[in-house]
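Incident log, support desk, overnight shift.

02:14 A customer reports that sequence design results differ from what the structure should imply. Their input is reproduced verbatim below. On-call engineer (initials T.W.) acknowledged and began investigating.
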């Protein structure tokens, strides 16, 4: 189970931060390569008979660092803007499943309100069942539960079945 959680978290992190992870790894890799190349250049410059001036190599090194950082921030900035634009498009469409659930809830509440007004206007219990139940049953899936006087738990149902079996055995 822990592997599944690790894979799920890894997938979620990768999906959300893919550009940031890749650009960070590339930044670290290029900084290491630049440092290695610069240290190789410095050792080569020391081996030369007339010592070569190395001041410009440091300027090049730090300018490349600055260029890398600017590129890193620009890439991540535009990647974040693109993700925000995609999210805003999706927000414009809306969450269709949530919208359906909310619409169903509103219609159920409206049908319950209609049922209550119909119950108060009708005096006969038979007329109530015939007129109100079909309207509510189509929109409200819990109307059968609301009409019951007492609700039983699953444990009560199991105990009743066991008691009925015992009674059947005693009778036989």
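02:41 Re-run completed on a clean worker. Output:
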């Amino acid at each position: 189970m822990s592997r599944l959680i690790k894979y799920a978290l890894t997938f979620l992190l990768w999906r959300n931060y893919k550009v940031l992870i890749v650009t960070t790894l590339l930044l670290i890799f290029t900084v290491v390569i630049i440092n290695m190349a610069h240290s190789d250049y410095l050792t080569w410059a020391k081996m030369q008979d007339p010592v070569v001036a190395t001041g410009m190599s440091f300027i090049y090194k730090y300018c490349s660092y600055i260029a890398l950082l600017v590129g890193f921030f620009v890439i991540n900035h535009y990647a974040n803007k693109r993700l925000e634009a995609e999210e805003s498009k999706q927000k414009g469409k809306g969450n269709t499943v949530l919208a359906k659930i909310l619409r169903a809830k509103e219609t159920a509440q409206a049908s319950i309100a209609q049922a209550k007004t119909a119950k108060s206007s009708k005096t006969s219990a038979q007329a109530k069942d015939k007129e109100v139940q079909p309207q509510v049953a189509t929109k409200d899936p819990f109307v059968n539960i609301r009409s019951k006087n007492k609700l039983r738990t699953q444990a009560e149902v199991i105990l009743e079945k066991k008691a009925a079996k015992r009674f059947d055995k005693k009778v036989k």
